[in-house]
Design brief:
Elements lengths: L1 H26 L7 H20 L8 H21 L6 H33 L5 H20 L9 H24 L1
Helix pairs in contact: 1-2, 1-3, 1-4, 2-3, 3-4, 4-5, 4-6, 5-6
């Protein structure tokens, strides 16, 4: 059962990251004509488009996509509970789904920052995916750069943001454990 659990967990987490990336692309006002952005939109459009007819945006925030992300997390818990033959209450499922969305957001931020760092070493601006990664991460990195300038040509903003994200994720997990504990 571990292999099945791993497969279900991974597939749901990857798709949840795609859905969350769509929200992030909109918040960052990233280039939607970029091939990477087009992949994200096409992977989520069949479900998000009908939802948008009933669920309006709120102040530039795509509420329909956020609700869809939450539904994906609920579906993940539901499928895992069926496969593992494990009973879960509706309230526990909803709280767990919210926790999954938040922790997946932290993981997504981490991996996008890591991918951007790797692309900056390798592609030298020639990769279209790198342009979107810059658009996504620059709002996180530029405030840190204003406080901690590059030292000897070394930009420490990425390291500071990664450490901050890891700290916030651990803090969230500790708070969640205390609340549920």
């Amino acid at each position: 059962m571990n292999a099945v659990n791993f497969l279900i967990d991974t597939l749901f987490d990857l798709y949840l990251m795609v859905v969350l990336l769509r929200v992030w692309l909109q918040l960052a006002r990233a280039d939607f004509y970029n091939p990477f952005s087009q992949f994200i939109v096409k992977a989520t459009q069949p479900i998000v488009a009908p939802l948008r007819r009933f669920i309006p945006g709120l102040g530039g925030l795509d509420v329909a996509t956020i609700i869809f992300a939450f539904v994906v997390a609920v579906a993940k818990i539901f499928v895992l509970s069926l496969v593992l033959n494990f009973d879960i209450t509706v309230v526990a499922m909803l709280i767990s789904a919210l926790a999954i969305v938040i922790t997946t957001t932290f993981k997504l931020l981490f991996w996008i920052l890591v991918i951007r760092a790797i692309l900056s070493w390798v592609s030298k601006g020639q990769n279209p995916i790198e342009a979107v990664m810059i658009q996504l991460t620059e709002p996180l990195l530029s405030p840190v750069r204003r406080v901690i300038p590059a030292m000897g040509g070394l930009d420490l903003s990425m390291l500071v943001v990664l450490l901050g994200l890891q700290f916030l994720e651990k803090l969230f997990n500790d708070l969640l454990a205390q609340i549920l504990g």
